[in-house]
Design goal:
This is Glutaminase. Helices cover 45% and strands 10% of the residues. With 310 residues, it is an alpha+beta fold. The protein has a 5-stranded antiparallel beta sheet with strand order 2-1-7-6-5. It folds into 2 domains: 165 residues, Beta-lactamase (3-Layer(aba) Sandwich), CATH 3.40.710; 115 residues, Probable Glutaminase Ybgj, Chain: A, domain 2, CATH 1.10.1500. A hairpin with a 4-residue loop joins β5 and β6. The longest helix has 16 residues. α2 runs antiparallel to α11, α5 crosses α8 and α8 packs across α9. The structure holds 6-diazenyl-5-OXO-L-norleucine (DON).
């Protein structure tokens, strides 16, 4: 690490940002997420030697939600290669909210603008190899087991079925894309795989380790094994910069400057090349669906430790 971050510092900063939680609201459009406790805050930093410094609610488990989109993209690229994937999903920021259908109807051919918005992520899930939804999710889970070095990670069935039962907008996006030939096969099965991938459950340490492996050019922190080829890790990090925080990606790049991805569970993962991974968790969200406390904490960390990549 460039400068030493200690547990005491992280604890003090968590206390500083705690009051901001009241400015946000936990996601309630996925019924199981509405029960999250906005007071549960956690932060972890994992460096390239696999050393972890963490503070807060370390025992909290949360679901990846949109953070899974970076990992499913990596899996789809591993399975199909860049040409195949980017024929079906674009590389440009949308400037729209994550669940928007607006640009899909405007563009011809009707290809989602990028893999981080819901439309793009649903198309990416469709490309992951596997005959059944469980086979696709199983392959994504094995990749996540490698990244976290923890074989016990699973998806939370209560969260996935709660989302599956209420995901009318994501269903609409899928049916629209099916009509236009962007996705193939059963829409319900695609939604099944997608809601399970979003419900993969981790803790703050797992998430920071994932960020660290991306920062380590896709190599395992201990063995040096290339879990993900360097150029694919780069593609994922670039999407984190341009689209990771949706229609707040520009202001986040200016204020924080760290490739990062958020999820509506309130988690955010950041990845700083040559430095490590940073994960923050705080379920109260702003109106863009990003963690209020998480953003504040990342801004403090980035400024104090000079982590902006720009
Ligand atoms: O598809 C959805 O709406 C959720 N499963 C994930 C959305 C999400 O995390 C957006 N991020 N901030």
């Amino acid at each position: 690490m460039k400068k030493i971050i200690t547990k005491d510092i992280l604890e003090a900063w968590l206390d500083n940002v705690r009051p901001y939680a009241k400015d946000g609201k936990v996601a309630d459009y996925i019924p199981a997420l509405a029960r999250s406790n906005p007071e549960d805050l956690a932060v972890a930093v994992v460096d390239l030697e696999d050393e972890c410094v963490s503070a807060g609610a370390l025992e909290s488990q949360f679901t990846l939600q949109s953070i899974s989109k970076v990992l499913s993209l990596a899996q789809a690229l591993l399975d199909n290669g860049e040409d195949y994937v980017f024929e079906r999903v674009g590389m440009e920021p949308s400037g729209d909210p994550f669940h928007s259908i607006y640009k899909l109807e405007q563009l011809n051919p009707s290809k989602p603008l990028n893999p981080m918005i819901n439309a793009g992520a649903l198309a990416v899930t469709n490309m992951i190899h596997g005959v059944t939804p469980d086979e696709k999710v199983g392959r994504l889970l094995s990749f996540i087991h490698d990244l976290t070095d923890d074989q016990s990670i699973r998806y939370n069935e209560e969260v996935s079925s709660s989302e599956f039962g209420t995901a009318y907008l994501n269903r609409s996006l899928c049916y629209y894309m099916k009509q236009h030939g962007v996705i193939s096969g059963s829409v319900e099965e695609n939604l099944d795989a997608y809601t399970k991938q979003c419900a993969i459950e981790v803790n703050i340490h797992h998430l920071a380790r994932i960020g660290a492996i991306f920062a380590n050019e896709g190599k395992d922190l201990n063995s040096g094994r290339q879990i993900l080829p360097r150029h694919l890790a780069r593609i994922c990090k670039t999407f984190m910069v341009t689209c990771g925080m949706y229609d707040a990606s520009g202001s986040f790049a200016i204020r924080v400057g760290i490739p990062a991805k958020s999820g509506v569970s309130g988690a955010v993962v950041g990845s700083v090349n040559g430095y490590g991974g940073i994960a923050v968790y705080g379920p109260a969200l702003d109106d863009r669906g990003n963690s209020v406390v998480g953003l504040k904490l990342l801004e403090l960390l980035s400024n104090r430790y000079d982590l902006s990549i720009f």
